[in-house]
User: Fold these one by one.
Assistant:
Number 1:
Amino acid sequence: MRNNHIAGEWLSASNAVANVNPSDTRDIIGEYAQASVAQTKRAIDAAYDAFPAWSRSTIQARHDILKSVGDEVLARKDELGRLLSREEGKILAEGVGEVTRAGQIFHYFAGECLRLSGDKLGSVRAGVDVEITREPVGVVGLITPWNFPIAIPAWKIAPAIAYGNTVVFKPAELVSASAHALCDIIVRAGLPPGVFNLVMGSGGVVGEAMLSSAKLAAISFTGSVPTGRRVAEACISADPMKRMQLEMGGKNPMVVLDDADLTLAVECAVNSSFFSTGQRCTASSRLIVTGGIHDAFLAAMTERMNALVVDDACKDGTHIGPVVDQRQLEQDLSYIRLGQDEGAKLVAGGELLKRDTPGFYLSPALFSEVDNRMRVAREEIFGPVATVIRARNYDEALEIANDTPFGLSSGICTTSLKYASHFKRNAEAGMVIVNLPTAGVDYHVPFGGRKGSSYGPREQGRYAAEFYTTVKTAYTFGGYAP
């Protein structure tokens, strides 16, 4: 059994959950301890007790620890990437790429430890100085999803530690192996006991215990909309209220205009819609295509999809791995049936596949003749399912793109500077992409959306300080000027 890490110790639990390889369901990666309510409270208490000393630790100490974490993550990127791909199902190149990004994130925030700055201002009153500084908020609860089991924890854990907070980390149950491996690296880097705690388990047990604790000052959550709303309600109703940061999904559009480079547009669409098995909140599941290029685009997409290889995530030559588990596979299939029932035309894919090993294999699905009012165009599917929506012109394409309750990522393929510039200004999304896939952003820039996709300060880059620190204004009277 792989144990939880609480107050500087690896602690077992009364029950454990098997971690199953979605590429080969006969392969059990390990048994991972499920924390109880009592263990979760112990982790929170440990973080609470460790906060006073850690919040006053030197910036050099924090830098050295985070750099050490980044160094080991990068040195072991192939090993950790294979573990990630084995348990989550994204192909090996994507798994190694994600681990590399995590290492870079730890290095970035190691540098941020040394760059934390404030302001010193003159007062409107004689003889008074004003200082504005940033301080850590306290114990931070981190709740992360299964689709990026190392990168998303990294971009929450690294800034939390860099700015002097203590951490209680709850990963998604499906990806405990990656979380456990990352935790082992972090605690061996030299953190004092209690500064970082790993509590694996269900949201109903571990998550609820975190939300109900008065000792947690803040919660950073990435996951589904319903769970995000539950987190928000709990944070608002808590006494005292908790600071919250919520990332909750998307129904992202990619607009393809008549003047687009067809080959480029197809590659952007295939990458955005289907790579990582479509299990990305930034995936483009709505491809909005203007009339002049629509038919050619649809034909080229179908041809490109037919060349994609769906197989074991760790096998050479695989383009798309399996769906993460049986539950998600059933959800994907239910939406494929729903799209057909709504009148959309399934032009490619959407079929269960058999491979050499038993797994959750699904051919990527593409719908045409889709109306933006259909549920398959409104609701996040979180799988390799995309819809093509015809638009008369740019104006209608923009209107359709913005007609969604989400607002995370929005893309356009065009050779027109006029339309590209207008789209960047008028797309109702937190991130706008021109002639690139909508999925994937650099590790040093802010990540987050609008509308139903996100709530609270942005993640990543220097903007992370807005969530993980609080601003203090201090006045000093030095005597009246002569």
Note: The chain has a mean pLDDT of 97.
Number 2:
Amino acid sequence: MTEHGRAARTEERPPGPVRVLLADDEHLIRGALAALLALEDDLAVVAEAATGPEALAMARAHRPDVAVLDLQMPGADGVTIATAIRDELPGCRTMIVTSHGRPGHLKRALAAGVRGFVPKTVSAQRLAELIRTVHAGNRYVDPDLAADAIASGDSPLTAREAEVLELAADGAPVAEIAKRASLSPGTVRNYLSSAAAKLGAENRHTAVRLARAKGWV
């Protein structure tokens, strides 16, 4: 056996339970899910997180097999974290669990390589089944969310318009948005104006609300 062959073998994880990361800013929900999943012999919750950055840090530290991510978390949403996990930890599959059945979120999630997209109304037993499904390399999308996505049409916003609009969601001034997006203030104003016009909104605050209602940001 070559040195390369021996190295490759030592990096392989020994057989065992599916290692799961749970990320949800609602502590009660996360704790209940962790307790219920712990009852499954073939699943092991190896880390928990309450924010997007914490979820990514836990993924890096524990290298789970499946990361179950809440869509809306402080710091960064589940799709953003799923994208980072896909790029940094290709062996970890991701799932999004959400109480917001908005079609734009589903499309973003699929583009980020998310393998599962389910509502928070799913039972713990069903979630355990879906974790196994995703770990096995399959994809599951809630059929109701999929139907809504097909019916809704595509977002009229460009990627940059959506990014800038999302950065404006917390009421940050243009100068701060420009700094975060590495753009000039004038360019930020142009993107915000364009996004508002496309959405038929009188200002950026209304544009954010309308875009979020559709799941486009």
Note: The CA atoms of residues 103 and 147 lie 9 Å apart.
Number 3:
Amino acid sequence: MKINKPKLGLSIMPNPEFIAAALPLFESAQVEVIEWSFDTILDKKYQPEWLPLLLKEYGDNNRLLGHGVYYAPLDANWGANQDNWLQKAKLETLAYNYNHLSEHFGVMSSANAHHGFPLPFDLSNTILNIGIDRLKRLQNTVQLDIGIENLALASNVSDILKQGAFIEKLVAPINGFVILDLHNIYCQSINFDLDLLTIITSYPLHLVKEIHLSGGSWDHDHNLTKPIRRDTHDGRIPEVLLDILPEVLQRCPVLEFVIFERLGDTFQNKNDGLEFRTDFNKIQAIIDHTAFSSNARQWTLKKHDLGPPLIDLPLLNKQQELREHIRLETANNHAEWDTNMWITATKLYKKWNA
């Protein structure tokens, strides 16, 4: 059996500060794969000149991964935003050779395109069917392997421990995969006092094709009952994640990619770039010294027969009500939500919907 070590790479940011920090890694040929969130640039005239050249170079060598932010696959409504997003995804995958395409779990906090962040929501059979419908439409459009990334923000402990099984049901009809974001899980572990490995093993690790690693920050707001860990994609990777990484790598038998993420506007000085490269090299050393027994899986594509997009008005009303209460920073009258997480959600809304 051929043993496959996962390829290590970066989530690409268009900021000059990011490319300055990452350039030494590219120059030393350490960046084996790149991931690009293609829907984050509204107009390609604003993208840097080097970006399409980089995408083509990695795409031509089957080392380019696509990552979406704004498709909103669990939204109970369907409208022009999603139609336009699918068209953008189609054009993007025609322009560049993506290995696969992934999206985020959750319901977007805003119904507007290019605003908001993913929210947890009650994991019912209704929302499961909505999500399956959306992922089938995406796979039909781009004809690529499709995956879902786990969410950082959680409304309660039960939401955390049910998410893995729900995602497995969500991707099964499209023969899809899972992106396991370890810092997202770290946030949940800290914020709800849960064992890190307990959360990790609640996911279908046999479907994990890609792992995300990043840093984050602490929210010490006086309205919170304790400091809350935030998935802000800045700072250093927590040492506990690096310590547990070898075991996680060995528990994911079809793992192919490990992606290190940091937002492009978080590099304030040369030391930030040095720390960024140091963390990258730590991940590389862990991968190099881990014994793997994985074998790349063939993710057979499917073509789906579909009617009109599913729309569920009662579910839509509930989603809109949650969005509106978060937008207005109303008191937490949603019994399923932990109070600290409700405060966190209202603060995130201010940040991403400004």
Note: The chain has a mean pLDDT of 93.
Number 4:
Amino acid sequence: MQSSSSSVNSKPLRKVIIPVAGLGTRVLPASKAIPKEMLPVVDKPVIQHVVEEAAAAGFTDIILVSRSGKSAIEDHFDVHYELEAELARKNKDAILASVQSTLPAGVNISSVRQAKALGLGHAVLCAAPLIGDEDFAVILPDMLIPTPAKQESDLSQMVAAYKAHGCGQIMVEAVPEDKVERYGIVDCNGESPAAGECADIIGMVEKPKPADAPSNLSINGRYILPARVMELLVDTQPGAGNEIQLTDAMANLIAEGGKLMAYTMCSKSYDCGNKAGFLEANIVYGLEHPETKDSLRALLANII
């Protein structure tokens, strides 16, 4: 059920934080020397899919929260003069265009360091100097959310909800009840908004036991947050896993009278932070890619 709020948010929304400092332990040994965000889904690394998603939703400033050993991510979005010159010399125009468009037009990328792995909330707080007093988005690079052909992405729809309702939005997805302890779970006071709809959040909890979960609506790695959340993170104490949780700061925002809404996604997410989700994403994206869809479909039919 949608909120009856008629306020319209006219604040600029242009900055998105992407935390990329994780070790990628769930996909070892593949991530031993290569950042997990650089693992390819078909012909693009995971991080490029996420940056393109953000750009398509109107974000122009990408802030990577990184650490040592992750320079390959920044290099991927930089100019590679030697490679481009060689492709141009060999008249490989299509490949050259793909190399030159790794960073969408009009998008800027900057990065800050997270010296210690102290949780998602801490990673977001590391970007505070670049956020200032603006509302901002957070995208987790592990989660890929494909957009069906000729449809608007879930992130774009969530941006529209943010502007229409004048408050922060959290993307959610229903999960089996026996898996709620893997996620942050929202409480919409018994409401379960339909796909593409949103409802007020009255509370949330990080990785609850099934018996303690207020719903089965999991936070799905896409957030649009008011600037106040960044201020609250400064005083947020370590919570679940002895880490500074973004969920706790958002819960504190609600407790002090702030407003957040849960936006239920229309598509389906694929967690590329684990082996099964990574393989699923490659199959789903591979079945849409013009160079791979026919051979992959034939292979799957043969296997089945």
Note: The first helix runs from residue 46 to 56.
